[in-house]
Amino acid sequence: MNILILGGGGREHALAWAVMQNPKCDRLIVAPGNAGIAAIADCADLDIMNGAAVVAFSEENAIDFVIIGPEAPLVAGVADRLREAGILVFGPGAAVARLEASKSFTKDICDAAGAPTAAYGHFTDTEAAKDYVRAQGAPIVVKADGLAAGKGVVVAMTGDEALTAIDDMFGGAFGGAGAEVVIEEFMAGEEASYFVLCDGETALPMGTAQDHKRVGEGDTGPNTGGMGAYSPAPVLTDAVATKALEEIVKPILAEMAKRGTPYQGVLYAGLMIKDGQPRLVEINVRFGDPECQVLMLRLGAQVLDLLLACAEGRLERAQVNWADDHAMTVVMAANGYPGDYGKGSVIKGLDALPEDSFNMVFHAGTREVEGRITASGGRVLNVTARGGTLQEASMRAYAMVDQINWPEGFFRRDIGWRAL
Ligand code: AMP
Ligand code: GLY
Asked: pLDDT tens digit string along 206-250?
């Protein structure tokens, strides 16, 4: 089959790598792709936010299956346009993508489904929001309702911090995303990510992971898109995962189906786990980045069969074959990230690294310029490895990191510290 993947980060490189291993894949195009993806697939210049353009491109190139990586095209309804045109697609439509695009919508769905999550209020008015904070006290969590690239959340340890966050959000610090604000109970515990494929009716768990959102070692400093991840997540034991599936994921799927908007794609549940009880922090309607990289390295070629079964409504008869293994990815980012950073620096040493089912450097933000790999984003490389233990995966990943010569970049040396 001819397959099109939308996106151009480390997540999409990992998806492309897994899909390419499967003999069902004849031709793979990734739009826009990046320098790492260009080494294994064709890259195309295409406006992936424009549903009509994606449909036209798919028809011109006889694409049989489209896999949508990032949330923005999902929120924009690109999956809907493809389905209307009769093109097979992995990823939910805009009505379901609201679960990621609006935190208050997700809270309403949790209420209707009885799914455990933090107590909350939502506000469009500064004074009402502040009164709620004064009544509840700190710690408390203030969130811009809309998509804010992972930056619209303030975990306030004091009341003053929360009041300042409310002023910032209503003051336009996150643009339209902050026109509505959700204020939540602070949940203590350990966070983990749970990935479940859904075809509207059947839910098939695909794996667990934990990521490190803070930029600094020991999980300190500002939030980022993620500085590393590992899979499986030890805190998501079978018992906790079963609870999450039965108490959170399945009731939410049932509620979405009841509303006439069945969930088709991957449901990424961000969970807070305390004393063996998971509660929902957030839903994303796509794979995590960089969590996808560790999941793909562990699953390999079967990923395409699973995504196809999901898109075609055949998950009831599908199964995930797990090896008893562990994977880790270490993010290399440009100096300055998540603040301002430079672009265009040259990365050396990549050619000498192994590329096999145990070791892969997925590219997140790279561009080839005159035959050299250069940095073109904040998160630039995802150095990913697999092993029989997390320790082994970690040793392999850092052995590769240490061979990469890129003075303009940095990474965390402690990915996986909680589990190790
Ligand atoms: P979100 O964008 O909703 O995932 O929030 C970003 C991060 O803020 C989460 O990964 C958590 O670390 C933290 N967070 C969000 N909501 C809560 C909460 N209710 N209690 C504690 N921490 C939270
Ligand atoms: N790594 C967090 C995310 O993809 O949202």
From this structure: 999 999 999 999 999 988 989 999 999 999 999 999 999 999 999
Residue 201: what pLDDT?
Answer: 94
Whether 257 lines ligand 1, by a CB cut-off of 6 Å, is no
Joined together, the tokens standing for residue 49 give 């936010």
Ligand nearest to the CA of 107: 1
- Whose C-alpha lies nearest to ligand 1, atom 5? 153
d(CA 196, CA 41) in angstroms, rounded, equals 27
Closest CA to 57 of 78, 26, 38: 78
Q: For residue 290, how far is its CA from the centre of ligand 2 (angstroms)?
A: 7
Third-level CATH fold of 125-179 = Dna Ligase; domain 1 (3.30.1490)
Res 150 pLDDT > 70: no
State if residue 289 touches ligand 2 by the CB under 6 angstroms criterion. yes
Domain boundaries, the chain: 2-93, 125-179, 190-317, 326-410
Superfamily (CATH H level) for 326-410: Phosphoribosylglycinamide synthetase, C-terminal domain (3.90.600.10)
Residue 385 neighbours by CB under 8 Å, 6+ apart:
297, 327, 328, 329, 358, 359, 360, 393, 394, 395, 396, 397, 400
Structure tokens at 191: 């966070």
Q: What are the structure tokens assigned to 82, written together?
A: 């493809």
Q: Specify the fold of 190-317.
A: D-amino Acid Aminotransferase; Chain A, domain 1 (3.30.470)
Q: Which amino acid is at 387?
A: G
> Which has the minimum average pLDDT: 69-78, 100-109, 146-155, 391-400?
146-155
Whether the predicted model's global pTM rises above the 0.90 cut: yes
pLDDT at 360 over 90: yes
Asked, as a colleague might, if the bond just before 251 is cis with ω within 30 of 0, I would say no
